[in-house]
Amino acid sequence: MPKTPDHMTRALLRAARHGEISYEHLAHLLRAHLEEVCPECRRASEAERQEETPRVAYSGPMRRVRHKLRYKAELDRLLEEKIAVPELLANLQGLSVEQRLLRIRNAPERYATRSLGEELFAQARGCLPSDPAGARAWSETAAVLEALYPEPYIPHRARALAFQGNAARAAGDFETAKRLLAAARDLLTEHEVVDLELDAELHSFFGSLFTDLRTFGDAHAHLDSAAQIYTMLDRDEDLARVMMKLGNLHRYDGDPESAIELDEAAAHLLAADDTSPLYVAARFNYTLDLTEAGHYETARDILAYDQNLYEDHADAHTRLRVRWLEAQIAVSTGETELAEAAYLEVRDELARQAQGFDAALASLDLAELYRQQGRYADLLETAAQAAKIFEAHAMHRDALTALLLLRDAAAGQQVTAEAIRRVASFLRRASRDPAVRFEQSPGQASDPGSAPAR
Fold it and tell me: Are 339 and 369 in contact (CB under 8 A)?
């Protein structure tokens, strides 16, 4: 019989062995050759081929099976990742940023998972508002972790930038916050990422930044956008957080009544988990808004009602704020001894924590109480201590100048309520903007409400 190209050759066998052709392809060649050289083989092959299901008939079901198997494999992988997260997180907690990064880089095959990345973002969120440095550290850790993923994941890369920006904002570094938040937004745009949750989170962070910068129109626009997305996604906790931010915005803008409604609604959304830090914060903001609106007796009653909530579930930062608010309410309800004791406690604790601006503000609250009581010696001592504490723990020349002018005015028993209010207002602005200047009008050298422009 003449030799044809379909005869078995050593070259064909070697190609199959080396993987250059598949054994399935080799079998097809052999089958074709048998059909050509043997009538019996040809009849059996053709009969079998007539019973064969056309590829088009089973390609769809097979594709669905393959997708289902891949989906199941992905779910199994995610479940395995999630099971490992608590142990991996425990390995990172208590370490400095440098130590965390070293541990992750030494074992990326263990640590570089999206599940752990999500947990790092949760840790960063949980640090605020009391620990912006901690929030930034966890965000930086998440950024390094994302860079080690087997495949790039743009949503986590953008979220890491956004969280670092929000932590910078909480620490008062607004220029860095602007840059990082804009970088996160631009990254999503560049890669055409559609992620509604991340989009809402960015709007929320921008809203906080513009609120701190007191550009309320921009803040309101971003927070409204975030609230609309969270409402659409049915995310009650995130919606409550945004409503609380809107409440802050209205309070700063001189509308505490609107803030009351927003914080009350936020607390209602969170009531199912009435021991969570966010619920505690919502209740505190609600009481603060009542105080700002002049509803002192109601605020006092609410504060008393929530006392166990704060004792059992608030962090140290919130408990200190509660004590400060208790002092402010006590002044307005005539409980001056309670107010003085609370102000002293708050001031001393803030000084211990090296919180220069807040310690000075608590001192000014105490100074106003002494001024109302005509206790000028105590007023002078408090004003002097405010300047001393601030000089030790904060860096802002004009703020220190304002406090020194207040101290000098106290020495001459010339301090007015307006002067104390103006210095306190300036300190709040200076804590947000290091470039702000404390100015004095001509002929007002003895008024600590203003100082010479530099």
Answer: yes
CA distances from 32 to 41, 47, 53, 246 (A): 10, 14, 19, 76
Query: Which of helix, strand or coil describes residue 250?
Result: helix
pTM of the entire predicted model: 0.76
pLDDT digits (tens, 9 = 90+) for 253-302: 999 999 999 999 999 999 988 899 999 999 999 999 999 999 999 999 99
Q: CA angle at residue 167 from 166 to 171, to 5 degrees?
A: 115
Domains in the chain: boundaries: 1-48, 347-454
Distances (CA, A) of 410 to 116, 259, 371: 56, 36, 9
User: Which own/partner contact pairs does 119-123 have at CB distance under 8 Å and 24+ positions apart?
Assistant: 119/85, 119/89, 120/89, 120/145, 121/159, 121/160, 121/163, 123/89
**How far apart are the C-alpha atoms of 100 and 110, rounded to whole Å?**
13
| Lookup result for tokens 């620490």 | 171
Between CA 45 and CA 63 the distance in angstroms is 27
Tokens encoding 98:
């440098």
